């Protein structure tokens, strides 16, 4: 229950001016390496939501913006995946019970990534059991292999993106608040990319940022966002980033 | 209102909108040591390490977790008195939370939790699935299972709870986790906590 009551409070605190440098942005399972050409990666259709942030900070989804972002991020990912160092297969959208299973794991990834950010990447809120040296122990459980059945893939790449663009009212509030030396963020741009070992279900790499750059409603902005999401992807070559341009 | 006069008002609004400061102070709960929980006489002896969240859902409650409250959430309610809510009001004037009463029967407790969740989480997707008698904290109690989904998430969560009314006060422990993997993995650890619940046992120093 605590999750429900305090999620908003913590999110507000994160948005209310915690120095960006205070938060780690990526992590990987100790000892994990992914040499180029050693594995097949299943790219799960990204979860993308785009909308406006009201004056009070509420999220109002926008179907047109979301559709634009889906197209732009899809095109940018198609280019970027060629530089990831390993074969990438785009997962087909299943139907029937398999669709329910995939939706469940996609939702679980979102919660898992959120937990890593709050309780491992954010030092001020880190859980004692996650503070130990080399501790990066997060999993979706071995059942996740079900979503890659018959593909021969070794890893699944999950991508989550949520963009809230500040409304005019929110921007005005930001200006007036600044006059009183109060920090109010206008807009929120969260993105996570996570690689999951399909044999164990373990999260082996996560890149997450609560303040990503690039306007995903434009092709150029989407390319920038994808570069950020896949920054330091295991096994990728340094030239992978420019390849997304 | 001039701009100069409006600024403080808007700044106050901004402060209110920006929420309270981050609740730091998550602490380690060591295994095999009895600890008093939820600022009450309820003691628990864990058989493994847990993390106690720095933030409390209410005055007489506290949350433990293994990987974060979104993945595994154990909440203890310690000595909720008559006319008290289970956790803090979300919007007392418009949607007040239901209140505990010492005159409630044990089977009323799952419904109290259900109605509190429906209001606090603003979700109609909360159902009690089973209710059965049990022993909790050495007293006659009730155990129940439930499911819920938050309106802003697609994750389906399952829960299990144990509750007893002792000396007119409600003592309860609940566990909830995503129905994929986490619930099944961690339910045994929660049941071990619930089985260790005692009232008035002196915790180790």
What can you see in these coordinates?
The complex is a heterodimer of chains A (245) and B (205). Chain A is α/β, with parallel strands linked by helices and 245 residues long. Chain A has one domain. Chain A contains 6 helices and 8 strands, in the order αββββαβαβαββαα. Chain A has helices spanning 2-15, 63-80, 97-121, 168-179, 219-229, 240-243, and strands at residues 26-28, 40-43, 47-53, 59-61, 87-90, 155-166, 188-197, 203-209. In chain A, strands 1, 2, 3, 4, 5, 6, 7 and 8 form an 8-stranded mixed beta sheet that branches. In chain A, α2 (63-80) packs across α5. The model of chain A is unreliable at 4-21 and 240-245 (pLDDT under 50). Chain B has 205 residues and is an alpha+beta fold. Chain B has one domain (26-199): Mog1/PsbP, alpha/beta/alpha sandwich (Protein Transport Mog1p, Chain A, 3-Layer(aba) Sandwich), CATH 3.40.1000. Chain B is 20% helix and 34% strand. Chain B has helices spanning 3-17, 108-120, 182-195; strands spanning 27-29, 35-36, 42-44, 50-52, 61-65, 73-80, 126-136, 139-149, 156-166, 169-178, 198-199. An 8-stranded antiparallel beta sheet of chain B has the order 1-4-5-6-10-9-8-7, sandwiched between helices. A 3-stranded antiparallel beta sheet of chain B has the order 2-3-11, with no helix packed on it. In chain B, β5 (61-65) and β6 form a beta hairpin. Chain B is globular. Mean pLDDT of chain B is 88; it is low at 1-22. At the A-B interface, α1, α3 and α4 of A face α1 and β10 of B.
